Each structure stands twice: as structure tokens, then as C-alpha cells.
Amino acid sequence: MAQKRAVLYLRLSDSSDVSTSIVRQERDLRAYCDREGWVVVHEPFKDDGKSGGKRRAKADAAMDMMASGQADVVLCWKVDRMSRQGARLVVAVEKALEKNPDGLFVSVKDNLTTDNEMWRMQLSFTAEMARYELASIRKRIDSSMKYLRVVGRWAGGTVPYGYKSVKDPNSKGSILVIDPVEAEEVRNMAAKVLAYESLYSIMRDLNQRGVLTRSSTIVRDRLANELPPGRVKATKWSIPAIKLLLTSDVICGRVLHKDSKEVVKKGKENVVAKFLLDDKGMPKEQWPPVLDIETVSSLRTILNPEKPPGVVRRRKHDARLLSGLVRCAQCGKPLYAKPGVSGRPTVYECSSRTNGLECKGCSIQAAPLEAFVEAALLDKWLYSPVFEFVESTKNEIEAAEIERSINDTLLEMREFTADIVALSSRLQILKSREAEAAKEKPELLLRHTGEYYTPDYMAGLSTAEKRALLTPNIESLTIAKGLPGRHGLDESRINIEWRTLKTGPDTRSVETKARDAERVAAVKAALKKNYEER
């Protein structure tokens, strides 16, 4: 009789677990093969530090060897080492045995072999018990972590950048405190972003100075304790990492926890993460904030301009770039675009005559005027960040916080063990605060779009987008009446007054004005450099 060929599968979900170590599993499985007279024909398939609740390629590879006839036996130490996915393991074993009827699956510690007539019943029961045990473990861990967060202790895991874990003086657990060195780096990054320095420039500076990422500090600490480095992730700063750090809720001292699950299409579950809330139902500052919520909100507006909070869409504008913006220098009435006929070009024409008012009138070709104004705008703001006006509420940050707290409360009310009376009281308080916030009148806010004034940027804009830039920048644009016999665009007819902040009379000396002009030139040069590095 031919000697059976065996393959071994070993798994450990936590590499610090000594009692069921990989070494012990392999020793027991090889001893079993020696007693049966089987030969191990392949290096053991090992999954060290892998959960049994997920499908694993090495477990599948072991079963595939038996199914394809490359091996006669697959051995595991226990069923829960092979899988904690319940009936899926039974199906996998059955499929392998269908392809190789002479194959054999063995779970040594469960005394389970598939040459026993009762193997399906035994494997099904053992596999389902393993799945149930995994679910129970997860519930206990989730409950423990939620409790730790609620009482203000650190629940474990990777410590957020800007913080360090220290022993809680009031308990046996740990808490997070601000790491002064890392927090200073975070605040410097935030200050640079708020000054519109590019993320690329910030990233390059961090890497050139050798500032350690969180992954790098973990590796450093493990090596210092004579431990293996583990799975190393990012050892260099990246633009996405900086962006995520500066816009996260954690940097404000807030804690999110996976509180419930919602079933989405095709039976998949979506974990719902919610803030820990204070007595008023608002997000709680669990740890001292490295950055306050106002700063993070400003950073989000700059770094995520496509989703500003509380923004209302602007209405659509006229087709021509300057319709209604350009005015007659004689009567002050707007000039509107008048399409040309018989091949003549479109012109902007004073609206006074059309409305029955007295004015000698003026007109100017539309295309050359629009090109001139566009070039003037670009020349004034070249390489500067692009801003636009948006409508928003005065307390948009608070309104967004209230809305999220209401949604979290409604989710909690759907849970079977929810305290409906307490949650209803909280919801009523939040609704009252929402109503008060809604009474705030909208105001115009300047928002950075994430773009910079450059020829390429302007060339890629639509007419409506260019108009949205001109509107907040132009105080007045007037056209004087043309002189007879002039051809082409007479730039002397055009008067543009750019909008500036009202700061009172300019009492600066000539020297001060010259020094300020130098500073403006230096800022523009810095902006150009930042743009080119993007």
C-alpha cells in the first residue's frame, strides 16, 4: 500500500499566544503523521497572526493540493485553526473530497477524520461552534472597547499621531495625552496649510527633516524592545497621510466607535461609526485636542473644497462673461450683450436707450473686452490662491455638529436595548438647538477653492466659472464712449476698480509703501514656487 502524502495547515490569530503556538501545532501534526506512517510532502502552510473569521489563501491552497491529487491528507491542529466560518468549511471539505474521493481531512485535537461515517455531523457541529465562539469573542471585545472609551480610557490599537499612551493614574488602564513634539509638528502643518502652502512642500519638508511617521515610531519602539518590526507600512510622509491627519476627528480629541451595523444591498453589512456624545448629545472631547474644531473646519474647507459644510448652490448666470457687470461710464447703467447680425461681432451695449432713458450710449465688442478683463484679473492675482463667495450660516460648524448628533441619536433609538425615554429627551434638546441655529441669517463667506490663478487654470474654466471669480473681485467696470475713427480695442475706454478691504485712509509713508510692495512681491514669488511644486 502506497504511503499517504500529507500537507499541514497551521494558524495562530495572535502570535503572542504561547499555548497554541505555531511551533506546538507543527510538532503535534508531524507526530501524528509519524504514527500513521504518512509523509509530509510540502512545507507547512502557515498563517501567523490571521483571524479565522476570514477566508485565507493558504488554507485554500492546502485544500487545493488534496483536491488536485497532489496530496492525500490535509491535517490541522483543531477545526477552529482551519476556519471559524462555520458551514463554509464543511462545503470546502466536501468539494475537495468530491474531486479526490480517496482524500482525507483530519483535525487532530478534535479526533475528527473524514473516513468516519459521522464526519459531516461532527465537522458541522464543531465548525459552527468555532464560528459561534468567534462571534462571542468579538462581542466581548466590542463591549469592552466601548466601555473603555465611555469611561475615558484608551481602548488600544495604533495611537493617533500627536498623542501618546500613558498609564491612567486613576485606573489600571491607559489614557491618551498630547505628545508635545508630535503636536508641534501637527500645528506647524496646520499653520502652513492655512497660509496656503502646498501639501507637497509640507511633505517634502517633513521627509527632509526626518520627522518620523507613526509607522516609523512603532518600528523604532519595537526594535528598542528587541521585538521584530512587524508589518511596516508608511515610513515616509505622503500627501494623503497629511491630509487625513489634519482633517480627522481624532485630532480634535474626539472618539468614534463602531456602535451598530446596517444591512445594505445584497446582504452586506455596513458598520456605522458614531461619536461618543456628552450629556447634551454633542460630540465629546475624550482627549485634549491637538487642534480645535474651528481650525480643523478651516483645514477641511481648504483641503476638501468639493464638500464645504453648509454651502448653498449659486444660481446660474447669464451666458456672456460680463453681462450686468460692465456699466456705462456716462449713465452708470449696465451694458448687456447684443448678438451681432450679418456676420457682425457681439457687442456690449448700454441699456439706457432700450429702457427709454437719456444717454448718448456706448458699445464695445464683447470678445476683446472679455479677453482684456480676464487677462487683467490673471495679472493681478497670478499664482495666488483662488477664492469664491459662498452662502453659509454663521454657525455652520455648530449646525453640522447638531445634525450629526441628531442622526446618531436616531440610530441609537433603533437598537433593541435603547433607553427611549432618555434618547427622546436628548433628541428634543438637539431639535431645539437645531431650530435656533436655523434662525441665523445666511452670510457670504470667502472659501478657498484649492486652485491657483494661472493661465492653465483660467483656460480650463467655463464662462460661468470665470464669472464667479470676477464677481467678488471687481468693484466696478465701466466703459467710456468711444472716439470716432478708432478701430480695435481702445484700452483707454476701460476702467477697472478692483475690490479691496476697507481699512480707512492710507497713512503709510513712502518708505513703508515701498517695503510693503516688496513684501507683496515676495509673497507672490513664494506662491509661484508653491504652485510649481504642486
Topology:
Elements: E1 5-12, H1 22-36, E2 39-40, E3 45-48, H2 57-67, E4 73-76, H3 79-82, H4 87-99, E5 104-107, E6 112-113, H5 119-150, E7 163-167, E8 174-178, H6 180-194, H7 199-208, H8 214-224, H9 239-247, E9 256-263, E10 269-275, H10 293-303, E11 326-328, E12 335-338, E13 347-350, E14 363-365, H11 366-381, E15 385-392, H12 396-413, H13 420-438, E16 443-452, H14 455-459, H15 463-473, E17 474-479, E18 494-498, H16 510-533
Parallel strand pairs: 1-2, 1-3, 1-4, 4-5, 11-17
Antiparallel strand pairs: 5-6, 7-8, 9-10, 12-13, 13-14, 15-16, 17-18
Helix pairs in contact: 2-4, 12-13
Q: Could you characterize what this model shows?
A:
By secondary structure, the chain is α/β, with parallel strands linked by helices. Strands 1, 2, 3, 4, 5 and 6 form a 6-stranded mixed sheet that branches. A 3-stranded mixed sheet has the order 11-17-18. The protein has 3 domains: 140 residues, Resolvase, N-terminal catalytic domain (Rossmann fold, 3-Layer(aba) Sandwich), CATH 3.40.50.1390; 107 residues, Hect, E3 ligase catalytic domain fold (Alpha-Beta Complex); 179 residues, no CATH class. The protein is built from 16 helices and 18 strands. It is elongated, with a radius of gyration of 35 Å.
Report the count of strand segments: 18
| Poorly predicted tracts of residues | 15-19, 260-269, 307-318
**What is the helical fraction, as a range of percent?**
40-55%
**Total number of helical segments?**
16
The tally of domains stands at 3
- Class based on secondary structure composition and strand pairing: alpha/beta
- What percent strand? 15-25%
Distance between the termini: 71 Å
The backbone outline, from C-alpha atoms, is elongated
Question: How is the main sheet built?
Answer: 6 strands, mixed
Report the mean per-residue pLDDT as an integer: 76
Radius of gyration: 35 Å
